[in-house]
Structure to design on (591 residues):
């Protein structure tokens, strides 16, 4: 296989793509900062340091990241405990409500909050009718940004921390209770330490997300709370200040890399795990204290309202006209299907949706099709070339999307021989390239894991029967990983439909995707029919996202649960009555 023409062609194409779109743009960005027309200079840093606006944005970004690291973990851990650990009434309903952030997020979620709670939003108009002297701009600034991003950031806890909690050995909890530990001690000293690796990983993602946040600070921050990324966008739009944008983007990228290195080193300092000879499935714990039980239930359902009210209002308002939303009064005469009719019959209204579907489909298919052979090559053959290539392909996970977008703008705003002496900046293609770049690390990791899960015996058996390496890949390996590849493509498509952070830098003026259109609707001084169409876009995105999540996770999870239940029933029927297990001397170890 190493000597096959296909291997050589794929290697050359991947090396060209990596050098052209992953390495070269970042080198050009560094050149813009350190090597302007007059030669080596640190003038950009001097200008940045003398700009109070830029320094305030830097401080705000790090402050936002630190606050979110605390607030997201507090809320996220609580909702996981309320739905997966404690015996809370209506846990399934609570989980469904908390999971609404999984089907709408990013600019769509931020725009929804702005349209509902903003100066001219439905809730603000209703409150102003009761309190005429209230500040209509109450939902702006750092508090609004932290509130929205805290709720939006708990999806990782539901998906990953919830699964980690389900794997905690229940024998450890029982042993701690037998030794006289209270419910709080068991939670604090036994359960949570076991979850620390996952909590730490989520904290890293949350911190980096807050550091490079764009949509929430730009839409809700107002003039009093600006962060790095919106300022980079402002500077990038002016050629005279593009060096400042590049400098800020570089500072953001270096900060991300340093923080990843530091946090990963701290994580290796102590890992906690539970030890038991025979594992047991985690069972929900009753809260014996009536006061504590009432408090947990009250907080859980109060959070449910915070999660559910915005999407419910978005669905409701998608069937109303702008005047009803503006007045804050809803009647039967306010409801109409005109908004949906306009979206599906008016070409101009449907165009942004069509553009997003086109970009998402092209990028998701290309990145999966382009990496499926690369993932197998990287997983099967470990040498210097594949190791270096794998690290290069993971660059988009390390560098912020802002840095990648700005690097593409700087590198290809003139004819470049690497791409056939054409100008890519300002074209339709450059956004598709950026989308593909952004999805490379996730796709590569998932495909590599899929290939690693294929038994070697299958490939060996095919080789013994005389099949050639390419035939083995096409007829044996590819059908096995095809379902995983399809799921990855669906998730990539799902995430790109409302993508905004990259599109706002690179979108063609005539091919504006949904993320940019929805953001522009939030900038209106008053609610218009365009705002009502935004609600329709949001509902359609929620339907598509929810369907994709169910296809990828829901059906497989249901089958796995039924299979596990049948296995447990069979094992329970066949196994003899267990003897009382001795209390372990040490249930928790620290490495």
């Amino acid at each position: 296989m190493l000597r096959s023409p296909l291997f050589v062609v794929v290697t050359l194409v991947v090396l060209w793509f990596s050098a052209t779109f992953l390495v070269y743009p970042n080198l050009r960005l560094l050149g813009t900062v350190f090597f302007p027309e007059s030669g080596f200079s640190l003038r950009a840093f001097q200008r940045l340091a003398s700009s109070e606006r830029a320094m305030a944005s830097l401080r705000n970004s790090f402050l936002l990241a630190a606050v979110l690291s605390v607030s997201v973990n507090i809320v996220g851990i609580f909702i996981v405990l309320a739905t997966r650990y404690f015996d809370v009434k209506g846990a399934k309903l609570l989980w469904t409500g908390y999971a609404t952030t999984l089907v709408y997020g990013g600019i769509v979620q931020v725009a929804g909050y702005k349209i509902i709670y903003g100066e001219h939003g439905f809730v603000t108009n209703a409150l102003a009718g009761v309190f005429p002297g209230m500040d209509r701009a109450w939902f702006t600034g750092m508090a609004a940004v932290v509130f929205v991003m805290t709720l939006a950031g708990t999806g990782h806890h539901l998906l990953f921390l919830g699964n980690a909690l389900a794997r905690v050995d229940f024998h450890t909890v029982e042993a701690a209770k037998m030794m006289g530990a209270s419910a709080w001690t068991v939670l604090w000293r036994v359960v949570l330490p076991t979850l620390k690796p996952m909590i730490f990983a989520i904290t890293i993602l949350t911190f980096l997300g807050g550091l490079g946040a764009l949509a929430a600070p730009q839409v809700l921050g107002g003039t009093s709370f600006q962060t790095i990324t919106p300022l980079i966008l402002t500077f990038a739009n002016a050629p005279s200040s593009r060096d400042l944008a590049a400098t800020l983007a570089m500072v953001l990228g270096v900060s991300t890399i340093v923080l990843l290195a530091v946090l990963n080193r701290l994580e290796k300092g102590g890992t906690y795990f539970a030890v038991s000879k025979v594992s047991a499935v985690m069972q929900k714990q009753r809260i014996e204290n009536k006061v504590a039980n009432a408090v947990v239930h009250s907080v859980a359902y109060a959070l449910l309202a915070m999660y559910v009210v915005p999407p419910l209002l978005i669905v409701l308002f998608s069937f109303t006209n702008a005047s009803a939303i503006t007045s804050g009064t809803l009647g039967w005469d306010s409801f109409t299907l005109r908004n949906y009719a306009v979206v599906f019959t008016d070409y101009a209204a449907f165009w942004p949706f069509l553009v997003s579907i086109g970009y998402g489909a092209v990028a998701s298919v290309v990145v999966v099709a382009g990496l499926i052979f690369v993932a197998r090559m990287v997983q099967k053959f470990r040498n210097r070339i594949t190791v270096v290539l794998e690290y290069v392909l993971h660059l988009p996970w390390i560098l912020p999307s802002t840095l990648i977008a700005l690097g593409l703008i700087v590198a290809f705003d003139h004819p470049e021989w690497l791409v056939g002496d054409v100008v890519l900046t300002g074209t339709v293609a450059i956004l598709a390239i950026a989308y593909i770049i952004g999805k490379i690390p996730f796709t590569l990791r998932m495909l590599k894991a899929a290939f690693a899960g294929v038994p070697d015996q299958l490939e060996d058996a095919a080789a013994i029967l005389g099949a050639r390496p390419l035939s083995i890949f096409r007829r044996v390996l590819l059908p096995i990983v095809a379902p995983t590849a399809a799921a990855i493509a669906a998730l990539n498509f799902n995430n790109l439909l409302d993508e905004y952070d990259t599109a706002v830098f690179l979108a063609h003026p005539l091919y504006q995707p949904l993320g940019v259109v929805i953001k522009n609707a939030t900038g209106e001084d008053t609610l218009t029919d365009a705002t009502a169409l935004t609600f329709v876009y949001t509902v359609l995105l929620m339907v598509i996202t929810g369907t994709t999540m169910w296809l990828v996770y829901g059906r497989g999870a249901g089958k796995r649960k039924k299979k596990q239940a049948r296995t447990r029933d069979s094992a329970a029927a066949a196994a003899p009555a267990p003897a009382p297990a001795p209390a372990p001397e040490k249930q928790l170890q620290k490495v």
